[in-house]
User: Which sequence fits this backbone?
């Protein structure tokens, strides 16, 4: 039964990928010091006639298991970079964040491919940030060579969901990251739990000590925002600021931000 469902989902996903029926939405991230839009994170969406809205937490691992992660990554990057180019033309001035599966980093020539895609579209590679989550099977340290190649090209690297899974302090020191994203679990807990606040503060101070930018994800309440500001967090992202938006809604949204 499970196998049958996985097969059906997989076929549906492959068709959606081939027929260009996936889409990307974009979530703003704003700097706490001045409320400016500084980054936009691209997130993939799949709306299926049979399965309805399937979350990426469901189909990204499926794509990883069945050899479809590279085509998904390339489709997503192409779509996102084109959208970014259009925004640059409209005067929207922002860095772009894109989620990469650790599996795609196993190819040593992947950084060259990304650089070529940026060059072809004339979008600034040094304003691209790749967000990585450590998979259960592949410690990021094994991907050091690929990560270093990205950094040489000026492409930023963020460690996503920091504080969960296998991400560790050692990795932060050894790997060439430029940004840390504090997992929303800690953000959600911070107002009620003194322990969570202590951990968030320690993560922020540690990241700053290493010269990294700190983004907090999943910010949903004004109280969380206040706390994060008091603790010295740089950038926030979450429903309180904005949900992931369809591309045509981002520019009007950003135009409505208070001038400071
Ligand atoms: P992530 O990179 O940690 O992305 C953040 C997730 O939190 C997104 O879920 C986003 O919609 C959601 N979110 C944003 N603000 C809030 C908030 O205030 N509260 C709560 N509760 N949630 C919030 P989404 O889009 O379902 O993505 C889930 C995960 O799937 C992502 O986690 C990322 O790991 C992966 N993913 C998404 N798009 C891509 C992609 O294009 N490629 C790859 N490889 N992975 C992707
Ligand atoms: Ca992310
Ligand atoms: Ca995350
Ligand atoms: Ca996540």
Assistant:
């Amino acid at each position: 039964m499970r196998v049958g469902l996985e097969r059906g989902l997989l076929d549906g996903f492959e068709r959606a990928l081939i027929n260009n029926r996936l889409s990307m939405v974009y979530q703003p991230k704003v700097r706490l010091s001045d409320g400016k839009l500084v980054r936009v994170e691209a997130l993939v969406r799949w709306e299926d006639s049979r399965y309805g809205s399937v979350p990426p937490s469901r189909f990204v691992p499926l794509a990883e298991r069945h050899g479809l992660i590279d085509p998904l990554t390339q489709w997503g990057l192409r779509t996102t970079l084109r959208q970014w180019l259009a925004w640059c033309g409209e005067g929207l001035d922002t860095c772009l964040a894109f989620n990469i599966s650790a599996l795609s980093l196993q190819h040593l020539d992947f950084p060259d491919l990304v650089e070529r895609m940026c060059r072809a579209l004339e979008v600034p590679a040094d304003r691209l940030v790749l967000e990585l989550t450590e998979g259960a099977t592949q410690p990021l340290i094994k991907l050091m060579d690929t990560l270093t190649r990205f950094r040489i090209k000026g492409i930023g690297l963020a460690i996503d969901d920091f504080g969960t899974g296998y991400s560790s302090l050692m990795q932060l020191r050894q790997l060439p990251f430029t940004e840390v994203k504090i997992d929303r679990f800690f953000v959600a807990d911070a107002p009620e739990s003194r322990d969570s606040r202590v951990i968030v503060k320690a993560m922020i101070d540690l990241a700053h000590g290493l010269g990294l930018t700190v983004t907090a994800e999943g910010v949903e309440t004004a109280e969380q925002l206040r706390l994060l500001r008091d603790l010295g967090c740089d950038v926030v992202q979450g429903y309180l600021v904005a949900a992931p938006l369809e591309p045509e809604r981002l520019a009007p949204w950003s135009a409505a931000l208070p001038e400071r």
Q: What stands out?
A: The CA atoms of residues 118 and 125 lie 6 Å apart.
